[in-house]
């Protein structure tokens, strides 16, 4: 079942350096690996890319010493780094658009490859909502599902509590040394006894507001489906539901009284097609057939390098592509069409701009200049 | 728009006598009219039918004096009897399986042919549920829908209250002189100011438990759709929802917290396909296209009499058909097949048994001996 190849220690250090460098997110990481054939070559190429991309100030590249220090500190805390494509990397997470190249896992690694269900919801949960979440997580746990959530107050904490004995996964928005919120630190310790805590951020990373929506893609990405227990309009839980939809995961929502603002989001999800959920049976009925089908994962392999000859843009081409960009998001397909350049060339120019900190990526393959 | 022919005073008296006679429900009434061509002929035939059906004791036939007295009392109270097929008879109600032959209406008759929506739910409503029902009825009223409900405590009363100004219809389980529950008598008086109260029962009929589910078919039958606001499992509101489904009416349900037993019924309805409803817009979105389509009603006409020659069973046939019947419900189609008799003959024998008080009709054209 476990496919994929383990990175060498050397490669793992390079991967960590690359993902910890400025302007490198999961998507850029993948593009770089695809382009240069490996992290070591990408690290070497970074300064040149940033220069050609027109970086005002070259981004910082994580040093080998920093990466080794993070590895060592993690090891001391019992945290392992699982790399994309390795046998232990969660299969479903591997299939999202922007899987973290390295996942720092504390606790029971094996739980990540069990069938997982996310249970999330409001921080200011009602007593009924929290009670429901805990019971639902318990019942799904008894049915052999691991429970993923975000360690937040309210629904998340209740979901973890309901599944401590059967196995639960807390996905952190910050690093393992900065669990949030502080009041749930004891809960986190109970979680890692049987389950696990995971993070894509550096150990000491203090989570910022925008790290929470980013983290939510991992909650849905790890799971077969996401149950939203309570959610106000425009709440973080709805972001998780949106990610779940984009990632092709099942979305479940618990109904509530229309006069309760905490039910606005969940009732809205049901109207949009989420499965109305009043208990574990509703979730199991949808997920069991999916489990039966198994997961098809493309065989993991070291990506092949694309020769510079094929994808190195000329100065003209670069200028033409940059000229097409502005503050308004534009589709990458349109850039290819309008510039007349090969897709590989356009991707290279975008990579340069990104590493120079000048490009912003939006959903749906849209990009804009910063 | 208003089609159909008015009954003569004489015919109306005969209709009232026939429907007020023992063992005659709306379905039997229709069968008798179809068979004998009119109420007067049916009344004459009743004793013979009951005898042939093997009545232990012949059922009571309402006298002309009784019918005239009921007419007179009704007139004194401002109540009119609208007969099936008359121009004022509610078009949608005419299309259900078992429309009341005579509908006693108090108040504003015209409201019955406006587009109506039923809003029903638990008697022991939550404060939030009652508030929601009242607001929903108000908003639907503003959108030109009349609101139908059952005058019960809780959700029904709230729905009437929310639509007093725009028009609301109370369907009574008993007679007009026995409104139930007593605490809503004042509300009823406010209802008939702008809207109406309707009943198929004699004026002084004290409603029994089984009259409430029977009444519920009229609530759904009058309406384009039924909104269930709160409903426990196995509650009367779910009976109304079932009637609505059988009658081809839209079913709407208001979601609630799964831990609230009053939401068990409504959440269940949504799972089964009812439209999740959090406000009037959800109802209007479904009903507006239906309104646009108009209603197709078969032209009302006096049914033609079937000659006795064609449908008078011989003794053999009668015995054969009765022998096929027992306490277990059996399909009328099967009776035709197994007896080898013509459908018209089978229907006549069933009519005789029914009038003799020996037949019970179940849903789906099933019958059994009492």
Structure in words:
The structure is a homodimer of 370-residue chains. Chain A has 370 residues and is α/β, with parallel strands linked by helices. Chain A has helices at 9-19, 26-36, 39-52, 64-76, 91-94, 127-142, 155-162, 185-194, 211-222, 236-246, 264-271, 280-293, 308-311, 315-323, 332-339, 343-355; strands at 79-83, 102-107, 116-120, 146-149, 168-171, 196-199, 225-228, 250-253, 275-276, 330-331, 359-362, 366-369. Chain A is globular and about 60 Å long. The N and C termini of chain A lie far apart (43 Å). The A-B interface holds A 126, 128-129, 131-132, 254-260, 263-264, 267, 270-271, 276-279, 282 and B 126, 128-129, 131-132, 254-260, 263-264, 267, 270-271, 276-279, 282.
């Amino acid at each position: 079942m476990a496919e994929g190849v383990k990175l060498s220690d050397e490669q793992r250090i390079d991967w960590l350096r690359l993902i910890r460098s400025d302007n490198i997110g999961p998507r850029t990481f993948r593009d770089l690996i695809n382009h240069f054939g490996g992290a070591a070559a990408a690290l070497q190429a970074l300064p040149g890319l940033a220069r050609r991309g027109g970086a005002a100030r070259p981004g910082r590249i994580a040093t080998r010493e920093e990466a080794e220090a993070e590895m060592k500190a993690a090891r001391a805390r019992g945290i392992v780094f699982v790399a994309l494509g390795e046998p232990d990397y969660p299969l479903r997470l591997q299939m999202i658009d922007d899987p973290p190249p390295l996942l720092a896992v504390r606790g029971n690694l094996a739980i990540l490859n069990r069938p997982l269900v996310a249970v999330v919801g409001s921080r200011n949960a009602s007593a009924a909502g929290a009670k429901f979440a805990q019971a639902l997580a318990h019942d799904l746990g008894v049915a052999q599902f691991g429970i993923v959530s975000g360690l937040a107050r309210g629904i998340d904490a209740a979901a973890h509590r309901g599944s401590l004995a059967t196995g639960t996964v807390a996905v952190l928005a910050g690093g393992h040394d900065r669990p949030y919120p502080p009041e749930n630190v004891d809960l986190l310790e109970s979680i890692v006894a049987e389950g696990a805590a995971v993070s894509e951020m550096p150990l000491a990373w203090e989570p910022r507001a925008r790290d929470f929506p980013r983290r939510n893609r991992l909650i849905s990405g790890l799971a077969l489906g996401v149950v939203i227990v309570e959610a106000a309009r425009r709440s973080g839980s709805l972001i998780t539901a949106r990610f779940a939809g984009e990632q092709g995961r099942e979305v479940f929502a618990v109904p509530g009284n229309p006069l309760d603002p905490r039910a606005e989001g969940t009732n809205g999800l049901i109207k949009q097609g989420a499965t109305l959920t009043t208990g574990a049976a509703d979730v199991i009925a949808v997920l069991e057939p999916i489990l039966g089908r198994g997961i098809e994962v493309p065989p993991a392999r070291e990506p092949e390098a694309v020769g510079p000859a094929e994808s190195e843009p000329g100065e003209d081409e670069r200028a033409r592509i940059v000229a097409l960009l502005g503050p308004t998001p534009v589709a990458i397909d349109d850039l290819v069409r309008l510039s007349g350049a090969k897709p590989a060339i356009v991707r290279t120019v975008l990579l340069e701009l990104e590493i120079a900190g000048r490009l912003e990526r939006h959903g749906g393959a849209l990009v804009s200049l910063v």
